[in-house]
Amino acid sequence: MVSDHDEMSDSDSARVTIKDVARAAGVSIATASKALNDRGRMMVETRQRIRDVAASLGFMPNAMARALVSQRSFTIGLLTNDTYGRFTLPVAAGLSEALIDRGVSVFLCAFEDDAERAAINLRSMQEKRVDGLVIAGKRIDRGLPIDLPRLPMPVVRVYSLCRDDEIGFVPDDLEGARSAVNHLIACGRRRIAHITGPTSFHAVRLRAEGWTEAVEAAGLPLLAGPQFGDWSEAFGYASGERLLTLPASERPDGVFCGNDQIARGLIDALTLGGVRVPDDVSVVGFDNWEVFAKATRPPLTTVDMGLNELGRQAGLTLLDLVAGKPVVPGVRRLACRLVVRSSCGTRPL
Amino acid sequence: MVSDHDEMSDSDSARVTIKDVARAAGVSIATASKALNDRGRMMVETRQRIRDVAASLGFMPNAMARALVSQRSFTIGLLTNDTYGRFTLPVAAGLSEALIDRGVSVFLCAFEDDAERAAINLRSMQEKRVDGLVIAGKRIDRGLPIDLPRLPMPVVRVYSLCRDDEIGFVPDDLEGARSAVNHLIACGRRRIAHITGPTSFHAVRLRAEGWTEAVEAAGLPLLAGPQFGDWSEAFGYASGERLLTLPASERPDGVFCGNDQIARGLIDALTLGGVRVPDDVSVVGFDNWEVFAKATRPPLTTVDMGLNELGRQAGLTLLDLVAGKPVVPGVRRLACRLVVRSSCGTRPL
DNA sequence: CATCGAAGAAAAAACGTTTTCCCAATCCGA
DNA sequence: TCGGATTGGGAAAACGTTTTTTCTTCGATG
After folding, report:
1. Confidence of residue B347 (pLDDT cuts 50, 70, 90)
2. What secondary structure does DSSP assign to A219-268, as a single string?
3. DSSP string for A259-281
4. Which domains can be identified in chain A, with CATH numbers?
5. Mean pLDDT for chain A overall
6. What is the pLDDT of residues A103-113, one digit of tens each?
7. Which end of chain B is more exposed for a tag (fewer CB within 10 A), N or C?
8. CA quadruple A290, A294, A295, A299: dihedral positive or negative?
9. Residue B9: beta bridge partners?
10. Contact at 8 Å (CB) between A209 and A172?
11. Which nucleotides of chain D does any protein CB come within 7 A of?
12. Interchain CB distance below 8 Å, A4 and B150
């Protein structure tokens, strides 16, 4: 019936302040502060003594008192509508890891597409005086269901719609798609199809464009053009079944899928239909969602969007902004990385 | 080359303090504070006037100044080693949603099993003076790679090992397993197998126990006992292939799987081998990881651990602790919920 | 008429830091 | 020995709140 954080546990547990340190070290508060922060001038042994005393007392500076005077809270907010976390979690991890080393902590504000909750979270972040905001979404052509009035703090966006005068980070879908297709070509494939999500997604259009460019650049046929559907495994499966109905001569020998789920469904259908992957058909996915990519038979070669890195860079850029450094506005497209597993067969050299 | 949060944007954007409000309303700071916080006595129109002024100025109280004096930061920390987020993300969402309404924000501290980073995060949380800590893990029989010295703040645990004198929240694996098996029985199944993860997981042992109890309670055979393996789809697939080698009379007609991935692999193997699910064999999973459960053919009936609710309750309990309310220590096992889809066939009444 | 009470509002202390002065001592060269 | 620089350290203001205490009024009571 008790809590385990007794106030009076040991001499050191009751919040020790810099005043306690100063008194114990026989110096003034100002000197103690300067000693601990490597500021001002004083004898080196004085500085060390104060530090030793602070350590032995278990002193931890109160970040809020510090924030109050320095006008920097060393916190930032991560606002996202991706509660499921497919995209946001890697971003958050990258962000958090990059910032913790600089003493900055991250408030997680996840909300469904519920404008009211979003507003509450936003207000909360303002009251908590975060130094900046990272806005993360789940598609690059949508903003959050909340309009940001002119905020008193810098903002960067990740995997979200971004105006020209804002600063955003997205994966380079176009180049990622190209590299996927080029990998198929390097594996000796000549008839390369593209099966992907709904055209309403900008990412879909970009990836389709990348496919088109790479295929045309190699002087290969565009077959029937991109096959648009939804993001599901079921669509991939259905597409696979459709492919099976084609005469072998018209069948593609390589497929670039818009995401890993589609690829998964496609491979399942092909395998069930007696078409071997990668012997008969090579498949490349998109997302590198490992739980899928590693579980397909064979494991899936796919494009990793580098979400972790996206988060990291967003964090560092936000810190620059906070520090008042000039940052060119606009959206940065970070390189994707092809993760080669075994769904494409012969490795190119 | 500029940041979009110009300091001097409009009259209201340069941080407005309570002093500004007081001056604009022609009262003292003390009066302004009382008006805004519904404290003290004053003419009702004075109160309203102050509030109107505050609103028109866009006043937002500085949470850190407030925290400094009230000794409550209205923040808590979520420490987790589950950077992948399979378990933590739903917990975080539930936690965050429950707390935001009470004005409490959540710091996300995710680290790999890297003790040093964990320590940095922990120290950061202490300096930020969080009111409490939620420790979330990815298995119920492991703590975090960090020993918590007697912390000056209350702690609750979620999906993590928990000493008797601590407060923890975990799903009721035993009962969840029982309900899964009972569902199979209600669907008319008599030979119910259990295919699950490694015995080193406590969750595995609990689920196996639930399976055993429910099967025995119904007077049914335990067959060959639980089949332990790993959590992968590949293991489920291999198990399915093994089942196919059995003579039909010895084959189970219902399988309770330790997680959804195993179930997925199992169903794939059975389907490929010509055994129909659910007509010939019913399958129940565990986790309700929707991206799997909904993608299996047929969609998977599975046990939902209620991670969201776990997070919610943990948050509310932590708040009680912070408020000094007495809370009985120990671990709470929250009910799981069977999500019925179509992998078991005939719905029980 | 003097006093009392209460209502309304202000003054000031406190929270725990950082930082800007400022002061006293020591040192150096002349 | 004197004047100025340098060195080591302290006093106090500031950050933006809440809260306790004190101070006016003003009307009512004895």
Report:
1. low
2. T---TT--EE--SSHHHHHHHHHHHHHS-GGGS-SEEEESSHHHHHHHHH
3. SHHHHHHHHHHHHHTT--TTTT-
4. 70-171+308-335 (3.40.50.2300), 173-306 (3.40.50.2300)
5. 92
6. 999 999 998 87
7. C
8. positive
9. none
10. no
11. 7-12, 14-21
12. yes
Cα A107 to chain centroid distance, Å, stands at: 15
Residue of B nearest to A105 (CA): B107
- CA–CA separation, B284 and B102 (whole Å): 38
- Average pLDDT of the residues in B257-275: 94
CA–C1' span, B144 to D8, in Å?
46
Which pLDDT score, from 0 to 100, does residue A114 have? 85
Which helix (H) or strand (E) segment is A20 a member of?
helix A18-25
Sign of the C-alpha dihedral computed for residues B32, B35, B39 and B42 taken in this order: positive
Task: Report the distance separating Cα A191 and Cα A58, nearest Å.
Answer: 67
**Considering only A11-15, A127-131, A134-138, B224-228, which range has the smallest mean pLDDT?**
A11-15
| CB A63 within 8 Å of CB B77 | no
Output the pLDDT for position B272. Answer: 86
Whole-number average pLDDT of chain B: 92
Task: Evaluate if the CB of A46 falls below 7 Å from strand D.
Answer: yes
Across the interface, do A13 and B105 touch by the CB < 8 Å criterion?
no
DSSP state of B250: G
Give B108 or B297, the one with higher predicted confidence.
Answer: B108
